[in-house]
Hints:
Blueprint: H1 7-12, H2 27-41, H3 49-54, H4 69-86
Family: Belongs to the DivIVA family.
Keywords: Cell cycle, Cell division, Cell shape, Coiled coil, Cytoplasm
Protein name: Cell wall synthesis protein Wag31
Amino acid sequence: xxxxxxxxDVRDVRFSMPRFGRRGYDEDQIDAxxxxxxxxxxxxxxxxxxDVRQFRFRRPPWGKRxxxxxxxxxFTARIADTLAGLTR
Length: 88
């Protein structure tokens, strides 16, 4: 298991683009989601590990590549683990 994430870890994360010809996840939606995670890690907000596990990211608009799916999914799993640890 990875160490718990901090609000700064979430603020500082950067995702690459998927390889050319592929569409990843919508950047604006991911950025808004990460803002919610930061709020929760700072003691505000009500986001839970289950909320994170059930969240579905959409594709970016046509013509945009978005964020790399695998990187987002791996980081999201770390977020869920971190939030699960807050409620234990």
